[in-house]
Write a structure and sequence with these properties.
single chain; alpha/beta; Four Helix Bundle (Hemerythrin (Met), subunit A); Rossmann fold; 2 domains; seven-stranded mixed beta sheet; 11 helices; about 40% helix
Length: about 350
């Protein structure tokens, strides 16, 4: 199925009684949409990763809160829905950011006005995310252009899925890739499969295939070898939370790529919207790391891959220290990780 890279994996329905999402657990084999009509529906979709990616999680949670208030706009239900949605995924800071933003918009209002106000706020979050994706893409495109003076394909490596399926627009790490491809700059993408849930092979490869962007799927453990062989020009990743010092928390395996990139002299950038920056924490050690079901590791395509009773540790994310990153791409521009406060002076703590 060919889709436009501006497509949204979440559509708000006109009657404001539901939203429709793409069930990403069914990709790449089936395109399945699901209606979410309650906060519980939204919480389930986030928890089970039918929707995933920090910006999309935030938008889904915001609509979930609006749906809750449409059923019961009381203070008690507002608090209950906020708590229900907040506990679904602990690492992505966009979740709390979106919920708190909606909370602030509705809590001063009379109960009768809350549902419409929450819906408008959720729509604003979704619309702003699409514009932010575009701005990140433009800033990242300038980096890619500088790597392509002789018009040979720029070799880009990705990890996980920080694409259109993870956002309400072009994606974060994929936005510069799509804009480069559209503008005629030859690119080739090394897609890291991203164990254990294979978001790279199932989702990023699916997106790139749909857009006709040349790409090659690799196992995660091939990444360092390709960099050492000088077959990678730049690594572009997303993030689920960025500390105020520039430490980046992203899908497990990002730290290893950053170490390999530093050793091989390959630039590595994290592409993040400002809502992913958590100004309340000093460094990545303060970021909670979600640990998921061991079955995600043990069950690969319906086949058990280890002896019964094998102990499993399944952290969903890791933290890459700021010193290992070349830069961070935001909607306001590109900066060294330690210089985020210069791009966002209004957010920096004294």
């Amino acid at each position: 199925m060919v889709v436009d890279t501006d497509f949204r994996p979440l559509h708000a329905l006109p009657d404001r009684r539901a939203v429709e999402i793409v069930d990403q657990t069914q990709l790449p084999h089936r395109w399945v949409t699901i209606r979410l009509s309650t906060a519980s529906d939204a919480a389930h979709a986030i928890r089970t990763m039918q929707v995933r990616g920090a910006p999309l999680i935030g938008a889904t949670a915001a609509y979930g809160l609006a749906l809750a208030l449409a059923q019961d706009p009381t203070d008690a239900n507002l608090a209950a829905a906020h708590a229900l949605l907040l506990e679904t995924r602990p690492t992505a800071v966009n979740l709390r950011w979106a919920l708190d933003r909606c909370w602030r918009a509705v809590v001063p209002l009379s109960p009768g006005a809350r549902a419409d106000a929450a819906w408008r706020e959720a729509e604003a979050i979704a619309t702003e995310d699409a514009a932010i994706n575009r701005a990140i893409g433009e800033h990242g495109l300038a980096l890619i252009e500088r790597l392509a003076p002789d018009r040979r394909p720029v070799q880009i490596m990705t990890h996980c899925n920080a694409g259109a399926l993870a956002t309400m627009g072009l994606g974060t790490a994929t936005a510069p890739i799509y804009l480069a491809h559209r503008s005629g700059i030859p690119v080739h993408v090394w897609v890291s499969e991203t164990r254990p849930r294979f978001q790279g092979s199932r989702l990023t490869a699916w997106e790139l295939n749909a857009q006709g962007v040349p790409h090659t799927l690799i196992v995660d453990s091939a990444s360092a070898a390709l960099m050492r062989q000088r077959r990678v020009d730049v690594v572009l990743v997303g993030a689920d939370r960025v500390a105020s010092n520039g430490d980046v928390c992203n899908k497990i395996g990002t730290y290893e790529k950053a170490l390999a990139a530093r050793e091989s002299g390959v630039p590595i950038y994290a592409a993040v919207p400002s809502a992913t920056i958590d100004w309340t924490i000093d460094d990545g050690d303060s970021i909670p790391i979600e640990e998921r079901d061991p079955e995600e590791v043990l069950d690969a395509g319906g086949e058990e891959i280890a002896p019964p009773g094998t102990a499993v540790l399944n952290p969903a994310f890791d933290v890459t220290p700021a010193r290992l990153l070349t830069g961070i791409i935001t909607e306001r521009g590109v900066c060294a990780p330690q210089a985020l406060a210069k791009l966002f002076p209004e957010k920096a703590r004294p």
